[in-house]
Amino acid sequence: MKELTFITGDVFTDQRGSISFVNGFDMEIIKRFYMVEPAHCDIVRAWQGHQNEQKWFYVVQGSFKIVGVKIDDWNDPSSNLDVHEYNLNQHSPGILHMPGGFANGFKANEPGSKLMIFSNFTLQQSASDEYRFNQSKWFDWNNVKIKNND
């Protein structure tokens, strides 16, 4: 069974500045990427799911709450699925890998946040593997708490 995984990065700093990196992220299967910059922190993007497409989430600026659920039935998923919560931020570099079989949602924790998302599918492939669910189905986005990754 595929699960969510966090690929830890690091920051190197010297007199010239700093370099953030995630050297453990193998991009061989990546076909595209895109950047999400919410207009404000009340915006929630949830729930998007894919049976086969994989996603990788990297916070470029600010911080985000990212939530994933493993879908049990794509036509009529249970309302009581296990919710996996992550708080990612620019100061602790890392990439959250969400394999196929999951639905995801996310919300910026602070103004000006930017989230880069990588995919192993083209846009056309993704469109034929896309499922959408009600934003309030598995998570209370109005009660988001910032804490360490799970």
Main features:
five-stranded antiparallel sheet, mainly beta, Jelly Rolls, globular, about 5% helix, about 150 residues, 1 helix
Description:
There is one protein chain. With 150 residues, the chain is mainly beta. It has a single domain (5-13, 39-134), classed as Jelly Rolls (Sandwich). It contains one helix and twelve strands; from the N terminus they run βββββββββββαβ. Strands 1-9-6-11-4 form a five-stranded antiparallel β-sheet, with no helix packed on it. The chain has a five-stranded antiparallel β-sheet with strand order 8-7-10-5-12, with no helix packed on it. It has a two-stranded antiparallel sheet with strand order 2-3. It starts with a strand and ends in an 18-residue tail after the last strand.
Query: Termini distance?
Result: 18 Å
Strand order of the largest sheet: 1-9-6-11-4
Q: Indicate the overall shape.
A: globular
**Unreliable spans:** none
Number of helices: 1
Outline the biggest β-sheet. Answer: 5 strands, antiparallel
* CATH fold-level label: Jelly Rolls
Overall helicity: under 10%
Number of domains: 1
CATH architecture call: Sandwich
CATH class assignment: Mainly Beta
Q: Which homologous superfamily in CATH is the superfamily? A: Jelly Rolls
Strand content: over 45%
Mean pLDDT: 93
Order of helices and strands: EEEEEEEEEEEHE
Radius of gyration: 15 Å
